[in-house]
Design goal:
Layout (H helix, E strand, L loop, with lengths): L1 E3 L11 E4 L11 E8 L5 H8 L5 E4 L5 E2 L3 E2 L2 E5 L4 E6 L3 E7 L4 H10 L18 H4 L2 E2 L2 E2 L4 E8 L4 E6 L20 E11 L9 H4 L14 H15 L7 E5 L5 E2 L1 H10 L5 E3 L5 E3 L1 H7 L6 E2 L2 E3 L6 E4 L5 H19 L8 E2 L3
Parallel strand pairs: 3-6, 3-7, 4-7, 5-22
Antiparallel strand pairs: 1-13, 2-3, 8-9, 9-14, 10-11, 12-13, 12-14, 15-21, 16-18, 17-18, 19-20, 20-21
Amino acid sequence: MSSMPPNLASPALVPAPVSLREHNTLGLAARAAHCVTIGDPAQLPALTRLAARYDRRLVLGGGSNVVLPPEVPGLVIRVALPGLRLVQAREDAWIVEAGAGHGWHDLVQACVQNGWGGLENLALIPGQVGAAPVQNIGAYGLELAERFVQLQAWDIEQGRRVTFEAADCGFAYRDSVFKHARPGRWLILSVRLALPRPWRPLLRYPDLLEHPDLAGRDPAALSPGRIFQAVCQVRQAKLPDPRVLGNAGSFFKNPVVDAATHARLRTAFPQLVSYAQPDGRYKLAAGWLIDSCGWKGRSLGPAGVHDRQALVLVNRGGAGAHDILALAAAIQREVQARYGVALEPEPVVVSG
């Protein structure tokens, strides 16, 4: 991890009240009394000076992994840093860099269209590029950490630009050092990825192995574009579009248990869906746990569980943070009581 001193000449930033309903994919009615948008690195020194006046700060990208209260306290920092470029065409990889404000799916699509395969399994994941390493996003057998090279971040507290290599990020399942840092400490500016050459398809999950466009085909005859289309079709069939039905994607992490716990559960529940991990533990399918407790399609007030994917909590209209969290807590209680397994939410819950 390395750092660079700031450029002290920068424009002023003036915070303003902003509705955040359109800036969180759950569609929660939320308001920030003090909000700024960062669209140019030249604003960063001014951001540090401004942020020093606030006890609380929230960095907000696409709002796809957050539960916001009606009134968001402190300073809200919206990220709108653009950019996408091919840094280097190495023999073993395409090195691609994207600005933190770039849409994640837009990045995946652009890479596929340019012949840079390697991200297609992560298609249609909502949110922005800057949030991807925070969550170490993953889907269909691939995690961001497997493609990550480095990122540039702004240390809001110390007013300096810092480079994070992969080893600095503490990547784990849906986790990184950024999730454990003080809220509002880091503003990710750009992310650099290595997309492998030669490209090989990743077809570890049944949804892809059994897809009609992929099943039985010679992997050598497949293309990143074909995998991309299949992933999009699978996700669209299972997951609601947040522009139509407010949601934050998968609301709970898939719990990981030791071999003894897995054996006990498998004996008691033979239909248990699980995946062996390299370290000998087992990842349980949280969606199956929730569905088996009868929650798929149910609602508590204006918050509900999606009728096609039990891992997704939805805003059926007019839900607030308290509605979403009450539903999540009820699901956690039932899964704990039935299986003795604790479900951990994926989204960041911002307190009011």
